[in-house]
Specification:
Layout (H helix, E strand, L loop, with lengths): L1 E9 L12 E4 L9 H15 L8 E4 L7 E8 L1
Antiparallel strand pairs: 1-2, 1-4, 3-4
């Protein structure tokens, strides 16, 4: 199952240059362009959603930088 990751908010200045609206699609391989910290935060959700997990709420994940946090949304795509 494919997963879409999208930047929905940037609080401060992202050192990796992420901007609202950036998006990536993952299926069987990782993609370039997502910073390592953000990817580490997203990885558990990527695994869960790719293998069919469902949540009753939209999944939003923040990177660990509390001063310049980037918030990603992650969802499955058909």
């Amino acid at each position: 199952m494919a997963v879409r990751i999208k930047v929905i908010e940037v609080r401060g200045d992202c050192s990796a240059g992420h901007e609202v609206g950036q998006q990536w699609f993952l299926e069987d391989e990782t993609v370039g362009g997502i910073c390592f910290s953000g990817f580490c935060s997203l990885l558990p959700w990527i695994h869960m959603l790719r293998f069919g997990a469902e949540t009753p709420w939209p999944v939003e994940v923040g990177c660990p930088d509390h001063e310049n946090c980037v918030v990603f949304s992650i969802a499955t795509v058909q």
